[in-house]
Every structure is written in structure tokens, then in C-alpha cells.
Amino acid sequence: MSVRELVVLGTASQVPTRHRNHNGYLLRWDGEGILFDPGEGTQRQMLRAGVAAHDLNRICVTHFHGDHSLGLAGVIQRINLDQVPHEVTAHYPKSGQRFFDRLRYATAYRETVRLTEAPVETDGVLARTGGYTLEARRLSHPVESYGYRLTEPDGRRMLPDRLAAHGIKGPDVGRLQTEGSLNGVSLDEVSEVRRGQRFAFVMDTRLCDGVHALADGCDLLVIESTFLDEDERLAVEHGHLTAGQAATVARDAGVRHLVLTHFSQRYSEPEEFERQARAAGYEGELTVAHDLLRVPVPKRR
What's the whole-model pTM score? Predict the structure, then answer.
């Protein structure tokens, strides 16, 4: 059975706390696993969450600040130690190639797995598979940073009442789906478009066009909210978002489920992030992330 869920491995910005590990997020998308921003300690968090190296097909790094990338060394070595049987692809800003190289070869180990480097140089599509299209958008941060968006292709939903009205049943339904028409009845007459699901991952950034483009129409949006609204000046200065700004983006983009994460150590009351997000007018499903949380992708509309 296919599984689509987000496994939260860590939620701390800049420095870990007693209760929050550095960043790390695994998106399970049917038979694939995409690891986003493995910060320090990610390998241990994977063990705690029941995530194996074999679960990883892609690694997506938004930028090369330590809380988003220092775990790469351990994760890459674990992939090789466990002799993952499939190719793993790594996406990261091209401008940080020297950092990726240092992390990939931080210590001696035996390479047993094909790790394909696919650095990001500009906005656009990074990969197309049968299950999704992966694209990147430039964000606004003191170092080059990209957010990622995954979009499932649109499909068709068969309508039983219309099929029955045309006397189409059994194997003929499959023939109609494959051939597009059957005995003068077109697929459009007995089905409707089923919009593909959409997921976006937005980390360290100020408000910018890339944030809005990534969030547009998402079923699940994972977005940083490092600061509370009263510290907006600090957010702008350091290239981050507040809880209210993140929620406003989600509200305007029609996001169905908003996940706030990447919290500054200065705050000890996570419920305040939810309060400010609601005050900004976001009315959809809302989660203030904590380590080892599992968040299902919402069911199709």
C-alpha cells in the first residue's frame, strides 16, 4: 500500500536544544524517500524514527548552513555502509559544491553506492518520474538557498453513475481508460480530472517570489517560522520568516495543511506559533512540528 507522509527528524534552527534536534525531514512518497536538509544528528534521528538508509532515494539540501547540512557526512557514509542497492541522487545549490565535496569526503570510508550529484543552478525542474515532478525555486537568504516542490501528475477519477448510464462495466472500464474511448463514449464523458497532490519545502528565507511560487496550491507545505511576529526585524535581518508571515503565505496560496518548523532556541512556548498563525488568518489544518512527528499528506480533494 502506498504511503505519503512527512517524518520530522529535527526542528531546531541554528543550534539544537534538549528537545529539538537540528533540521531533518523525510518525505515518504509511495515507494520513494526524499530526505531534506539533514542537519547534525540526522543519522541518529533516523534510527529513532525507524527510517533506514535503504529508504532514501534523494537528498535535497536547501543551503549550506550547518543546521541544514552537517548531517550529510554521516548519512552518506551510512548509505554506503548499508550498501543501499539503488542509486541515490543529491540536489543542492551549485554554489556550495565545495561544501558538498567536503562533507561527502569528510573522512575515509568505502564507497559502495552510486551517489549522483545533481546540483541546482537556477529555478526549474530537477527531475521527472512516473510519480512526481521535482522543481526548485530560489529563496532570499544570506547564502544561496533553494526551496523544493513536488507535484504529482493529474489523473482521472472514474464516475460510477456515468459509467452505469452508458452500460460500461468490468474489463471495459480498463479498456476505456487505456484507449480514451469505447463504443462512441469518450473518457471525458465518464470521468473527471483528479488533481495531483502537491508538496513544498521552504526553509531559510525572507518573503520573496520563490516562497509564494513554491506554496501555491499545496496540499502540504513545510515552512520555516524561525521567529515570532514581534521579532520581525530580526527575521528580515537574518533572512527568515515569522509565524505570521509563514501563515499568511499559506493562507494566500490555498494551502491545505501547514507545517511550521525551524524554531529559534529563544522561544519555549510552541503554542504561541500556532496562535500567531491563526491570528494571520490561516484556517486550514495546522501543525507546529516537533521531533519524530509523522504528518500524513492530506487525502486527495
Answer: 0.92
